[in-house]
TrEMBL record:
It comes from Solitalea longa. The active site is at E514. The lineage of its organism: Bacteria, Pseudomonadati, Bacteroidota, Sphingobacteriia, Sphingobacteriales. Its EC number is 3.2.1.52. Residues 1-21 form the signal peptide. This is beta-N-acetylhexosaminidase.
Length: 844
């Protein structure tokens, strides 16, 4: 009897001991962490922090028995009191050494941490700290009382940035609002006339049934100003807003004529009518959006317009960090206003899978959630500071089938095609771990064949690798039939959603970038495939095997393949190392390649042109001009990355699609470009020009943890992208004389930033609910003993203080140079009272 009860007593004792241990745990809510950047040595690529542990409770915080987890883009951290190590990706852990001391109630312990990477700006700070007790390893506790500050003196650097901005801003002319073009992006032909038309609550939209959707959308938009929807008449004709058909116009072209009696929009298709109506909205004085009225006066114009490129895209990354459905719909409103027609939807990556796939529920049950885990079975590990809690709204989240169908319908109504991206074969950790969870569940149920049906990795693979983002388990195994079964299933499930939405699916994006060295080299499944297939002589050849099969999968469904540039490249190994050339095997397969790598010094500055010349359809997605996630400048106060340089609104504006190297001015560190680097590069041929299908701007979301950060990096940069994607080359781009080109450029740049500041940003204050766009920092310079200030975007207001306090909306407006006698702080405001970063100038 005693022997039989012993196991039960042991279990009971273990449970009681565990519960007792739990009650002994220090309350983590009483632990405060403060991370202070104390050294930031950019030339030597290192930084140093002080990490302060403060005990705010009544109990002692123990010297051991715990692990601290966090996220950060570092690979090495050292401190005598702590042992830090990489878990995976940007996920790290810290374990106390015997030098870490117990922290008594009310006490603080400070630790100096040395890392092997400098911080370019505040958004690169270590984040997402949470604590796990050794005897309760399955539960993580977020450190809610956490603060990051910097004591590094950046004042000299910030002033230097402000001084450069001042010089650049001096070249900008202030142009009266009435002299600005009233339609944006710039139309092909635009003439203002003497007439005007007044829209009020009794105005009727006369439209055929073919254009009824466009009429309804326009009426809904004006409802936010007039407080009333316009009547739509699909039968009669009369004076009002007339939507008319002209079969002779190109698909997206339109004509817009505003007279005293009518507003007439003419096009051959609903898309053309839609863009004509967006131009009509652009004609509306932006003040109406902030101050509704019973009538809207539209000044007379005669416009003929059509886009330069048929593909005008924006890539939204919701995988790294998630955005709610409402933010996606709001984005679509803005994209439509500025005549973008393609939303590249990056919904899957290492850090998240964001669309419900009914046939494979684990993809969202596991892959859409980030939080504390020991094995990625119920959710995947935290990334980008998402912390222990799976309910973190930036780290976790997905769109249900109904959500995605709603997004598709909304985009389609606004003439925006949605291209879904299934990141493969790399950047696929969320999918891999989700299918691992499915495998384990079914194996426990004794369903081996079913368990293996969608496996994405070779269980016996001993290959060792690290991706650029430091993952060691994020690449699908392309030798497994189950990988293709998975891809086929996801494509078919997505196609069903498009079909249910009544929206055509034309292409699926299969990623294809950044597969690391070492992948597949020790995979038995790969070895078996190589033995059977004589065309696969090395793991390099698996690339072409994979994309041939993926291409066949899509072609059998009347779809074409989109992907990053790597899908069109072939790796060549020789004594000089590895280089990449256009892969002739797929050149005529209608592959659409998003070419991003034009970074100076990589040898790929001309890659977009080489692929287009070889026969690939190319979407210009150049990092140096269109990666909106890059920081605006080198200021420590700016959010964003810098691996591809810095990107303010001038970078997309400066872009010359068919000769972009002509206007490359900076390298990837934001320094003046050595022009020798781009000498002798391949120019675009006439055939190549025909293969440049459009322009796209991605916004990667590693640092975007809120809608506010998303919108800050989105606008006003996206406005410059819209101009380049829609409008023809400006005169300065084709002017052979450098002096004349410079003169034409400065005039065009002045006109552009005046339009942005006096028309488009005021519109965006309220349009579609309003956008929290970036407001630039003032440019400053000390001249003749006085401080002068200016701003990049005319129409914004500079305010300042001389008492050391931060300027507010009530602070004095800058109108003339300020005496350089004491501390002066400048800050730029918009008409709504929202401000940008301040710049301080102190007397030495």
């Amino acid at each position: 009897m005693i022997k039989k009860s012993f196991p039960f007593l042991l279990v009971l004792f273990t449970i009681m001991n565990f519960t007792w241990a739990q009650t002994k745990h220090f309350d983590v809510n009483n632990l405060s962490l403060k991370l202070t950047l104390i050294e930031n040595d950019q030339p030597r690529r290192s930084s140093k922090f002080e990490l302060s542990f403060t005990n705010k409770g009544q109990e002692s915080f123990p010297a051991n028995g715990w692990t601290l987890y966090f996220n950060g883009n570092i690979s090495k951290m050292e401190a005598p009191e702590l042992t830090a190590s990489l878990v995976n990706g940007d996920f790290h852990k810290i374990i106390p050494t015997d030098k870490f001391k117990t922290i008594e109630a009310g006490a603080t312990q400070k630790i100096i941490l040395s890392t092997n990477r400098e911080m370019d700006n505040f958004s690169e700070a270590l984040s997402g700290f949470y604590l796990v007790w050794d005897n309760a390893p399955k539960q993580g506790f977020n450190i809610k009382d956490f603060e990051f500050i910097s004591t590094v003196d950046n004042s000299v650097k910030e002033l230097a940035i402000s001084n450069v901005a001042f010089k650049d801003n001096q070249l900008i002319k202030d142009i009266a609002a009435e002299k600005l073009n009233k339609i944006f992006p710039t139309p092909l032909s635009y003439n203002e006339t003497k007439g005007s038309f007044t829209i009020n609550g009794s105005t009727t939209i006369f439209s055929s049934k073919v254009f009824e959707n466009e009429a309804i959308l326009f009426s809904n938009d004006l409802n936010s100003i007039l407080g009333k929807k316009l009547k739509i008449d699909t039968e009669g004709k009369g004076k009002g807003i007339i939507l008319d058909s002209d079969p002779g116009l190109a698909k997206e072209a339109y004509k817009l004529l505003v007279t005293n009696e009518t507003i007439k929009v003419t096009a051959s298709s609903p898309a053309g009518i839609f863009y004509g109506l967006q131009s009509l909205k652009s004609l509306i004085d932006p003040d109406y959006w902030s101050h509704p009225s019973t009538e809207i006066i539209i000044k007379g114009v005669d416009v003929s317009d059509e886009p330069r490129f048929g593909f005008r895209g924006f890539m939204m990354d919701v995988a790294r960090n998630f955005q709610q459905k409402q933010e996606v719909l709001k984005l679509i409103d803005a994209m439509a206003l500025y005549k973008f027609n393609t939303l590249h939807f990056h919904f899957s990556d290492d850090e998240g899978w964001r669309i419900e796939i009914p046939a494979l529920p684990e993809l969202t049950e596991v892959g859409s959630k980030r939080g504390h885990t020991l094995d990625d079975k119920k959710n995947i590990v935290p990334s980008y500071g998402s912390g222990a809690d799976v309910n973190n709204t930036s780290g976790s989240g997905y769109y249900t089938k109904a959500d995605f169908i709603e997004i598709l319908k909304y985009a389609d109504a606004h003439h925006i095609a949605v291209i879904p991206e299934i990141e493969t074969p790399g950047h696929a950790r969320a999918a891999i771990k989700s299918m691992d969870a499915r495998y384990e569940r079914l194996m426990k149920e004794g369903k081996k064949a079913e368990a293996e049906e969608f496996l994405l990795r070779d269980l016996n693979d001993e290959s060792v690798y690290r991706s650029v983002q430091h993952w060691n388990d994020n690449v699908m195994n392309v030798a497994l039939p189950s990988t293709y079964k998975f891809l086929q299933t996801v494509v078919d499930e997505l196609a069903k959603m498009y079909n249910e939405a009544g929206v055509p699916l034309k292409s699926v994006h299969f990623g294809g970038d950044e597969v690391p060295r070492g992948v597949w080299t020790k995979s038995p499944a790969v070895q078996r495939l190589m033995e059977k297939n004589e065309n696969i002589k090395s793991t390099d050849d698996l690339w072409y095997y994979y994309f041939e099969k993926v291409n066949d999968l899509l072609k059998s469904r009347q779809l074409y393949l989109s992907g990053w540039e790597e899908i069109g490249m072939r790796k060549i190994r020789n004594e000089g190392g590895v280089r990449y050339i256009a892969n002739t095997e797929f050149a005529n397969e209608n592959f659409h390649t998003d070419v991003w790598n034009n970074v100076a010094g990589t040898g790929n500055e001309d890659l977009a042109y080489r692929l287009a010349n070889a026969g690939y359809k190319v979407v210009l997605t150049c990092v140096t001009n269109f990666y909106l996630d890059l920081a605006y400048n080198k200021s420590f106060k700016e959010i964003g990355q810098n691996w591809g340089g810095y990107l303010d609104i001038n970078k997309p504006f400066d872009f010359i699609p068919f000769d972009y190297m002509k206007n490359m001015k900076e390298d990837d560190r934001g320094e003046p470009l050595n022009k020798e680097i781009i000498k002798g590069k391949t120019p675009l041929t006439e055939i190549g020009k025909q293969n440049i299908v459009g322009i796209q701007a991605p916004l990667w979301s590693e640092m975007i943890k809120s809608p506010q950060r998303f919108e800050y990096l989105l606008f006003p940069k996206l406005l410059a992208v819209a101009e380049r994607a829609w409008a023809k080359d400006p005169d300065w781009a084709n002017e052979p004389s450098p002096e004349k080109a410079s003169e034409l450029y400065q005039q065009a740049w002045s006109e552009f930033v005046n339009i942005i500041g006096k028309r488009e940003l005021p519109r965006l204050n309220k349009y579609a609910g309003g956008f929290e766009y970036r407001i630039p920092t003032a440019g400053t310079s000390v001249i003749n003993g006085k401080i002068e200030a200016n701003v990049q975007i005319p129409g914004l207001i500079i305010r300042y203080t001389i008492d050391g306090t931060e300027p507010t909306q009530q602070s004095k407006i800058y109108t003339e140079p300020v005496p350089y006698k004491k501390t002066v702080i400048f800050k730029v405001f918009n008409s709504e009272g929202r401000s940008g970063n301040s710049i301080k100038i102190s007397r030495p």
